[in-house]
Amino acid sequence: MEANMKRVDSYANEHGISWRPHIKTHKSIEIAKRQIANGACGITVAKVSEAEVMANGGINNILIAYPLATHKKLERVAALLSKATIILTIDSVEQATHVQQFFQHIGQDIEVWIKVDSGLKRCGVDPGEPTLQLAQHVSENCPSLRLKGLYTHAGHSYAASSYEQVVAIGRYEGECIVESAQLCENHGIPIEVRSVGSTPTFEVAGKVPGITEVRPGNAVFYDAIQVGLGVATYSQCALRLMGTVVSNRPGERLVLDTGSKSLSLDQGAHGNATVKGYGHVVDHPEIVIQRLSEEHGIATIDGNTTLGLLDRVQIIPNHACTVMNLFDQVYVVRDGQVIETWKVDARGNVQ
């Protein structure tokens, strides 16, 4: 984990940009603080409840990378402004109007960034002219909103069939932000922050001249999906589950105590098909966790295995982010020894 943090920080320093990791991967105040100590300029969250946990834990610069508009959630955001810089994200005129009306009513200003769709086809305004039009609306009609940045997330990189395709997606991710920002500035709207995300693409998109920030989340741990995409190796994967063989049919199957409530049923977002089974069993390529029930991981055996009843294995999850959210705490291991236990502070914070 420490090496993974240093990898991102070294990359950011080399290219003269900032990094703002997405903490939905680890949901831990301790890890967030370590990322900031290693050079991160702040953090990214997906939910207001995550922002609340992190702000109360002492993190003072937080991007909520999710479009908010309801009165209740904006009230909760406003309550955090005395503790931290909170940045909201906008992707439509209608949403901007709701946010403006709320903050105008309470007499506060707030920093906002515009979300640009770089190809994921989820949230976000199209790059180019549509981005300019939204920026003009915010600048001209929303005096309580301080427009400071554009950002995007190329999550469709997870569906890439090759690393070359990841590179192409990442290059466009950076270019569409820079070009949209330049268009805004040509019309008198300064764009200070040009931010890109996605662990598979950040090392490509961050090289595009004009990008100022990257926001990789999964890069703190990596996982089997990142290995499948060619972004990381198994040795770089920091999050692992310890599983025990609880039932054994020699030559046929064995059962681990790691079911869907610990490994999750995730085999990859946005069409990813690079993983095999439901987690990589370290040092045992003959074992494939073929199916999961709630408490059971049923594995097939290809040939012979040395594993038997009560043997323990390490499992690298397919998707670290979903697995971390299933546990109350993690054990911190150095040189094979447990040295600390850390709480997963924002576990279940999805409101």
Automatic annotation (TrEMBL):
Residues 238-334 form the D-serine dehydratase-like domain. InterPro entries: Ala_racemase_N, D-amino_acid_metab_enzyme, D-ser_dehydrat-like_dom, D-ser_dehydrat-like_sf, PLP-binding_barrel. Keywords: Lyase. Belongs to the DSD1 family. This is Alanine racemase. It comes from Brevibacillus choshinensis. The lineage of its organism: Bacteria, Bacillati, Bacillota, Bacilli, Bacillales.
